[in-house]
Amino acid sequence: FCVDPLPHPGVRQYSKELIERELRKFYCGVCNYSTMEGEDSLKGVATGNWGCGVFGGDAQLKFVIQWAAASLAKRPIIHYYRYGERKLAGLDEFIVAVKKSEVTLEGILEIMQCLSPSSGVFTQILASL
User: Which residues, if any, are the signal sequence (predicted)?
Assistant: First the structure.
């Protein structure tokens, strides 16, 4: 599947509206594919820094959006290609901490409503757990 990212979102990417827009967009991309295959054969998602690089998206924010959308669609992210993105250096530790906290998907989505560009997305989410 192919999902187009929002180009050059700047500070707006942290707004509730744009987070929800990107979440719905990625969810539709993974959900439509999964329902064509049937519940028993849902496959994982291989993805990467969608909307980052030349598009200017925050790599940590985009990861959390993709993880949340794939989770909503009951599709695991089986591989996340980082492409050397330095902001994702703590990704493995972030995933472990989120899973260890046993926060629900709804909890993560609620935390995402309050994100700001002032500090890292991973830091803000972990501080809210």
Answer: none
Judged by phi (left if over 0) then psi (alpha if -120 to 50, else beta), residue 38 lies in left
pLDDT of residue 33: 57
The kind and range of the H/E element at 81 are: strand 77-81
pTM equals 0.89
- 90: amino acid identity, one letter: G
Q: Which residue has the tokens 């980052």?
A: 52
Compute the distance between CA of residue 104 and CA of residue 7 in angstroms, rounded to an integer.
30
Indicate the residue type of 80.
Answer: Y
- Which residues in 44-83 are b (16+ Cβ under 10 Å) and which e? ebebbbbbbeebebbbbbbbbbbbbbbbbbebebeebeee
With beta carbons less than 8 A apart as the criterion, state whether 114 and 77 touch. Answer: no
pLDDT at 29: 85
What is the C-alpha to C-alpha distance for residues 45 and 26, in angstroms, rounded to an integer? 11
